[in-house]
Amino acid sequence: LILKSSNFFAIATNGRWKESEDSCVYLAESTPEIFNLYLNYLYTHILHLDLCVPSTSSNTTVVDECEALVKGFRLGDFVQDTSFTDMVTDSLL
């Protein structure tokens, strides 16, 4: 699923790159929570912001959600998944 959605992962795992040899892709600019947001999007085509912002609704602010969306956009841009970045952009607007 991720290889069909992300040009980055498709290329990184094709056998000619270090990531393919190591069976590990290091995403320095992302956090596990943001990557989880991305993975859940791949399966549901819904952005589940509750996965990456505080779970207590009284603590969740618009700023928290916007920060998560910006981080999600940066991840989507890095992994070259335009469907995900489009969804994030639509959510920001």
UniProtKB/TrEMBL annotation:
InterPro entries, A to Z: SKP1/BTB/POZ_sf
PANTHER family according to UniProt: BTB DOMAIN-CONTAINING PROTEIN (PTHR47843:SF2), BTB DOMAIN-CONTAINING PROTEIN-RELATED (PTHR47843)
Protein name: BTB domain-containing protein
Species of the source: Delitschia confertaspora ATCC 74209
